[in-house]
Each structure stands twice: as C-alpha cells, then as structure tokens.
Amino acid sequence: MGSSDKELSVCVIIPHYNDAGMTRHCISSLLGLNWDGISHKFIIVDNASGDGSGRVLKDTYADDPVTDVILLNDNEGYARGSNFGISHAVSKYDPDLIIVSNSDITVNDPDMPLKLRDIYEKTSFDIYGPDIFSTYRNAHMSPLRKSHLSTEESNSLIKRCRRRLRLLKILDKLKLYEPLRKIRRSAPYPDVPGFDRYAENVVIQGSFFVLSRGYLNAYPDGLYPGTFLYLEEDILNLRAERKGLKTVYDPSIRVDHSEGTAALQASGSRIKKYMFELEHTIESCRIFLTHYDSL
Asked: Which residues contact 188 (CB under 8 A, 6 or more apart)?
C-alpha cells in the first residue's frame, strides 16, 4: 500500500444471531477506540435471530450515523451472512479494509485502528489476523495452523468428530458431561504455538480477521459461501494460496473472544453446543472435500 495522505476507510462486519446485549457490547468496544484519521462504519448482519434481537438492534441503531443493521429473512450461516455485510460495505462505502468480527469479540486496545493502519502500510496484506485471546479458555488461539487442512487431514478430522459425537451422546445420557467438564476446566488450556510471533501465510483464527482490497479484487463476492459454520479459516487460507495472496498474522493487536455465546444460547447447554459444533464441522469438512478444487 505505502504511505498516503488519503484517509483509510474501514468497515466492520458483525454477523449476529441472538443476544442483542452481546452485539451491543461489541459495538460499544469498537466505538471506544481511537479512529483518528480513519473513516469507519459498523455493519450488523442479523441472521434471522429467533429471539427478535435483530429488530431490537435495528431500532437501537436507527439514528446512529456509523452503524447499519441488515435483517436477513433466513439464517444464512457465518460465511453467507458475512457476505451480505461485505456486499453492503463495498457498494455503499467502498472501504480499504473490511473487518469480519464475531459478535462475542471485545477490543480493549484503544489504538487498534491505528495499529491496523500501520500494519497495512508496512505489509500490504490481503488478509490479516490478530492475536485472539479466548477468555473462556484463558489462552491465545491464533494462528490455528501453518497451512490449511489437507484432504487426508480433513478425513481424519471427520473421523475424530464422529468418535467424539458418539462419546458425547453417551455422556449426555449418563449426565456425566458437566462434572467431567469442570474437572477438565481446572487444567489450563495451552496457548497455540507461535501466537507471540509475526508470521505470514498461516491459518488465522476466524473470529476476527481483516480483508483488504487485494483480497476483494481476487474474490469480489467475499468469503466462500458453501459452508454454514466452521472451516472458514482453512478455506480462506486455501483461497489465498491459490491466488498468491498475502496473509499476515501480527500479534501486536489483540482482541478478546468469549467463545460461542450465540451457539450456547441457541443450544441451551455446553454439551449441546459442543455436539452442534462437531456436526457442523463434519458437514463443512464434507463440503471442503467435495468442492476442494473449486473453492
């Protein structure tokens, strides 16, 4: 990109499903940042929330000049829902950078926008990912991997998910999951290797990432729309590899992720949430394998 007198423009896309309070908290953390010299808009995409929270958010931000709320008629999932926001951002605001953020993300670093501008100017990234700190696991969770899953690894992941599903069904029936989870929670989760080091072309964590014009020139429609939930990160990495795009991981920016609030609310319990994740991971792996050559 290089230095320029032109003001950087940023749009933040926030897919939303249930829990207006969580999304309002996310927006509040973004509003509190230092956007000096950076034009910005926030775009909430409601995935047909069953609790009516999309309409609540629409009313809440009706007079807010920096926040748009899009209400979808159906739950389109993470990638397709995000793409509605990306399309809206590109056609209405034509931003330099598009941030895609979970609604359960909190940005506590007031200088995040300024740091993001500096990273973009220094690296000219097509895709960027920050340090993602899970407040639930008390651990750093990005980058996920050095490279996207291979077809062999995807098949192995399907097998592991199926085994875990069978086990969870037994634990659910015996009501043993919560006692075992509490024991497991007493042991610390490990940080992912390399979370504290700059890296390029790794698989970044998908709860908060940034797309530049370079990515959108290569993929004008945004994210691959074929999956409902999960594996977006691996598909993003594979698409970047195929087009020779540059992915940057730089931990000088950190965001906090409370992990799975909407899914937990929808499922009603941790074990149901975990089973939901496994089922959709299996389905996304199947799509990944079926459409690998055309993603």
From this structure: 138, 139
- Token digits for 236? 């993003």
pLDDT digit string, tens, across residues 37-85: 999 999 999 999 999 999 999 999 999 999 999 999 999 999 999 999 9
Which CATH number do you get for residue 35? Answer: 3.90.550.10
The number of distinct structural domains making up the chain is 1
Indicate whether 180 belongs to any domain.
no
What is the pLDDT of the chain when averaged over all its residues? 94
Question: Is 89 part of a structural domain of the chain?
Answer: yes
What pLDDT, on the 0 to 100 scale, is given for residue 181?
Answer: 76
Could you tell me if residue 212 is inside a domain? yes
Does residue 19 sit within a domain?
A: yes
Domain that includes residue 16, residue range: 8-148+190-261
